[in-house]
Amino acid sequence: MSEALIIGTPNSGKSLLFNRLTGMNQKVANFPGITVDISYGPMLANPALELVDFPGVYSLHSISEEERIAVRAFKKSLADEHLDYVICILDASRLEKGLHFAMQVLRECQLHGKPMLIAANMIDVLTKHDMHLDTRGLERSLGVPVLPISAKTGQGLRELEQAMDKNQVSQHQHVPVNFKAISDVELRRMAHNLAEDCGPKGDLLIRSQARLDAFFLHTWTGGAAFFLIMYLLFQSIFTWSAPAMDAVGASLAWMAALVLPLITPGVIRDFVKDALFGGIGAFLVFVPQIFVLTMVVGILEDSGYLARAAVICHQPLRIFGLTGKSFIPMLSGVACAIPGIYAARTVDSPYKRWLTYFAIPLMPCSARLPVYTLIIAAFIPAREALGGLVGLQGLAMFMVYFFGMMCGLLVTSLVSRVGPHSQQDMPFVLEMPPYRLPSWKPLLRNSWNRARHFVTKAGAIIFLVTVIIWILGYFPNGGTDLGASWLGRMGKIIEPIFRPLGLDWKYGVALLSSFLAREVFVGTLGTLYGIEGADNDMVPLVDQIQSSGLPVASGVALLIMFAIALQCVSTLAILRKESNSLKLPVQMFIAYAVFSYCAAWIGYQVVQLF
Q1: For labelling alongside 260, which of 176, 216, 254, 476 has CA 20 to 30 A away?
Q2: Which residues of 465-495 are buried (b: 16+ CB within 10 A; e: fewer)?
Q3: CA torsion 342→348→349→355, rounded to 10°?
């Protein structure tokens, strides 16, 4: 299969174009560093051509780890005989920056004898503001085809697909300038002159961005907007997802009422009722919140606000030994620690990248979300104000997330002061992408895929653990006495560990099983309560926790433990891979386990006291 490479600067719309051409669901966002791996996919219009999407880089002279990975792979791919040509994406609204990079790519293509074409993206932005791009002039000066497109609206994509033919691209190559002998300094001068001659005239786009930046980057209004946006993010997790959660719960209850009478009473019926509807069903109720969380974070990413948030956070993060660029992988960790750790490659400083690794596992990831929701719903009343925009449960969720983030910052502050120090550091330089309306179709599709991936990834583990928990809790007495079952006997052995937190053996078993994956806690607890309450509805686990008499102090202890403990095998594996060290994940696992238990005990005592 022949290949075509897609490369460009960050925020140029490269991954969105890749999605449109391949039909794949590569994540798209509007800040540097969202694409941290190389993606492959056959072109829809020509399945024999495989497109390769590289991470966005500012220059072929790499600085960050992400750029080094991309540049190294790009230069290696140019020597591949299966490579037909290179597609360089540039932002037509920021022509000079894109041209300088495109000339670097063109120089490498000439050195390796590979043809190239340029896709000038964001042409819809220029059209909207009555601006013009002289693509013919660019073609004459560069000697390669230049096609105006909009990956967002689809404008010019049919012409691009027609032009993506090896023979056609090769035929349209001419060499007005031998770029192989030109230095980077001279390339920058040429890019400036060419942008002046062929680019859109006027500074309308820059002035529009400057007005918004004057508000969002202001010391007072920017800080207030940041905290308001973050609060609305967490409030939306409850408010927006509540109808969908109720619908899922009602659907599961309806299915249970429909299916269970069809099964003869016995072991199979008990398994379907307790393990499937009680365990897995209790977990599925919280999946809509994953969708909402991903969608809201995606809106912030796609709009260009996250880069501003990184700038706002730079000074505060410096106090804790981090950099503003650490904010992006840390916020990515709110969805999942694994992409957050990958995104840490965008942190230029190796030392601060190492510190960022310590903070990411403490970010309140989506795997913790079902646990937080379950405990908050069980202990915090659903009181609302301002027409439902503000509620106690949303405020509690915000506080739990804020607690996890502060723990991450305190850990990095401590490690930066007592751990090894780096004498070399990198300056904080971050491009401010233009403000844009989100691309709603890929945003909704990405949110749906994220929720689906969360279910499929966690579903297999939850099903396996649920089956094991059900078997151990059901036998040898057929579920008549959970405490006398195999699981009950095992749980009572470890119960002394969790008794100081006011938790019985059932919660101890659920906590231990959650070290495979945090979200398993809900399914395990649902299975245990399902076996114990044979005549109760299996889905509303919140009601069963409330009726069990669990003290509020124990609920607080559970929240604290889940906020701190590193309960994810996959995260440990990725940390091992990215840090090239087994020592780091082992140390973090042990330290966070001890830290979480001690903090949970303190929280339990404080709540009991008051």
Answers
A1: 476
A2: bbbebbebbbeeeebeebeebebbebbeeeb
A3: -30
**476 upstream amide cis, omega within 30 of 0:** yes
CA 518 to chain centre: 17
> With a cut of 50, which residues of the chain have pLDDT below it?
29-31, 35-36, 534-538
User: What are the strands, taking DSSP E only, across 340-498?
Assistant: 384-385, 390-391
Q: What does the H/E/C string look like for 497-532?
A: HHHHHCCCHHHHHHHHHCCCCCCHHHHHHHHHHHHH
Instruction: Provide CB contacts within 8 A for 271, sequence distance 6+.
Output: 470, 474
Residues in CB range of 394: below 8 A, 6 or more apart: 234, 235, 236, 237, 238, 239
pTM as predicted:
0.62
Other beta carbons within 10 Å of 206 = 12
Concatenating the DSSP letter of every residue in 28-70 gives: --SSTTS--S-EEEE-SS-TTEEEEEPPP-S-SS--SHHHHHH
Residue among 173, 171, 154 nearest 44 (CA): 154
d(CA 143, CA 408): 51
The conformation of residue 21, written as its DSSP 8-state character, comes to H
25 burial level (CB within 10 Å; 0-12, 13-18, 19+): middle
| Chain segment 566-585, per-residue pLDDT in tens | 877 777 877 887 788 888 88
Domains in the chain, ordered, with CATH?
2-202 (3.40.50.300), 440-609 (no CATH)
What are the tens digits of pLDDT across the range 150-174? 988 888 888 888 888 877 777 777 8
d(CA 455, CA 289) in angstroms, rounded, equals 12
125 Ramachandran zone, left/alpha/beta (phi>0; psi -120 to 50): alpha
The half-sphere exposure of 477 on its side-chain side, counting CA atoms within 13 A, is 14
